[in-house]
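User: Please predict the structure of the protein below. I'd like the answer in structure-token form so I can feed it into my own downstream comparison script.

Assistant: Understood. Taking the following sequence of 107 residues as input:
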Amino acid sequence: MSHASNDVLATAAAWREAGELVALATVTETWGSSPRPAGSQLAVTKSGRMAGSVSGGCIEGAVAEVAMKTIETGVPQLLDFGITDERAWEVGLACGGKLKVFVEKLA
């Protein structure tokens, strides 16, 4: 686990200790082009605070939305994002990629 991951976990733990409701998103798998490696994490609070990163761009926003729902429901989710090499050019990317992100509420 990298130093950056430890910082996200420490931040999430501090938020929990302060009484915040927190969800943690973790990249579990990548293939092809992915801005963040497996193990990258994003912590999200019910009040909207965020620390870390799992991807950037629209994926990061989608993960944050799911994190908010996970905080409310307590139900963990495994998210699957991807784009083929063929479609990548259509949206301005050099190549395709895929990543899976696990989102869970911290107890």
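That's the full token string. Residues 69 and 75 are 8 Å apart (CA to CA).
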